[in-house]
Each structure stands twice: as C-alpha cells, then as structure tokens.
Amino acid sequence: DYFPYNTQECAFDGGDCPIPQEVELLPGCVVSYPEKLGDGNCDFRLPYNSPECNRDGGDCIVSIQFNDGYPYCYVDSPPAIGDGYCYDFPPYNTPECGYDGGDCIQVDGYPSCYVDDPTAIGDGYCYDFPPYNTPECGYDGGDCSP
After folding, report:
1. Residue 49 main-chain phi, psi, to 5 deg
2. From CA 1, how far away is CA 113, in angstroms rounded?
3. Number of domains in the chain
4. What letter would DSSP give residue 27?
C-alpha cells in the first residue's frame, strides 16, 4: 500500500503513524519509504539494497552472493547478471557489474567494445546498430562507415 504521509520525510504523518517496529532505522540509511525496509520484498534499487540499509532490511540477503561478487553493481534484476545474455546497456554492461557478469565479451583490438557476438566485428557485414556500429567497436570493425 502507498501512504504518502506515513514517511520519514513527513515525520510519519506528524507523529500520527508509528515508525514500523520491525524495521530498525540504520545510521546512514536514508530512504523515502522506510516501511519498505524489511517488508519481505527485495528492492534491488539504491539506496535500499545497500550495506547501509542492511540490504533492504534483510530482504535482499538471499542475493548476498551477487552482492559479494559485484558490491557496486546496482541493477533492477540481479539474476540477469551472468545469465548468458549480454544486456549491452548501463548499468548491466559496466565494470561494476563485471560487464554483465561476463555475458558481454570484450572484442580483441577494441578494449571498450563489449558485444554479444564478437565474431560479428569485422566479419564483412555491417551490423548498423549499437553496440556494434559505434566508435568503441571501430564501426563494426570497419564493416560500417562512420
């Protein structure tokens, strides 16, 4: 349920609403809806899923292996990291997320080029869409014109 006045910013409706007893407000954990902390649903977004907020009040502890492997990777769907498909856009395809958990492969000769199929770079056919036809990928390894 959404209660815009029962928030920390609104002093929990001027004191009319009690602070949720099951959630201890942690030092350094500043969130818009403290009632979401420890509600049984993991909110993968910052600042909820952060060490300061005890990984959403403990709701995201089941994702601790993910959090340990990529402590600064904040995505909406952690199971997508390393699932065998390259999500070639931020925040998935970033150093913080291990270039989508290794799903996005760096192309030899193009250190900033990460694509699903590195064999497509310079194969004689212009893949006229990102990330292939970009400066980072040498305009598909020279297959496309800049």
Report:
1. -90, 70
2. 43
3. 3
4. T
Contact at 8 Å (CB) between 134 and 113? yes
Cis before 18? omega within 30: no
Q: Which residue has the tokens 């952060």?
A: 50
**Residue 46 sits in the same domain as residue 74:** no
Regarding whether 50 and 87 lie in a shared domain, the answer is no
Range of the domain at 49: 1-61
9-62 per-position pLDDT tens digit: 555 555 555 555 444 467 788 888 888 888 877 787 778 878 888 878 877 765
Residue 121: how many other CB atoms lie within 10 Å: 22
> Both 80 and 119 in a single domain?
no
Tens digit of each residue's pLDDT (9 = 90 or more) over 55-96 = 788 777 655 456 667 777 877 777 788 888 888 787 888 888
* Residue 68 and residue 53 in one domain: no
Beta carbons of 92 and 84 less than 8 angstroms apart: no
127 Cβ partners below 8 Å, 6+ apart? 120, 133, 140, 143, 144
Measure the CA–CA gap between 127 and 30, rounded to whole angstroms. 45
Same domain, 52 and 75: no
